[in-house]
Design goal:
alpha+beta, globular, 165 residues, 6 helices, four-stranded mixed β-sheet, 2 domains, three-stranded antiparallel β-sheet, 7 strands
Amino acid sequence: MPKAKSLAANQQDSLLGTLQARFDAHMHRHAGLDWTMERSGGEPDVVGVGACTFVDCSAQSPKGRRSVCYDREALNARKEHKPKSSAVHMATAMGAALLTVDEYRALQELGEFDTTTSSWVQTPVAMRQLGGALFCDRRYDTIFVYHNGAESYYAARGFRCSLKV
């Protein structure tokens, strides 16, 4: 389990402002939810144990997370021309996890993502033990799930992750 991270008060305010702006700009992703509890003086706070999930919603796989192989094992297996990092390692360092295939498909119900890029997704252990890994993209208005060697990396392949809080 990743170590919990703390934010300074000004960082919290900035993050919440950013999240509210995105929330307001993309109401179709969460129909029926709004910030009216706060606006009406309700002072909402966390009191339940349910999870709130944040997912990468950039139109294409995030640029700073492309050209990476699947995991540390794949990175270490490359003898030359190693990528800068791996998708699993980078997601874990952020305290997040790669999307599952089901999460990726659910994201695509909210919009059109990865129309020119692709994203590594969680791969079954048995497949990974054989050297493979899964990635997804959207082409021709269809969601595709593909396989590739986990050591592979491409300029247009990155990853999306989710963070449950």
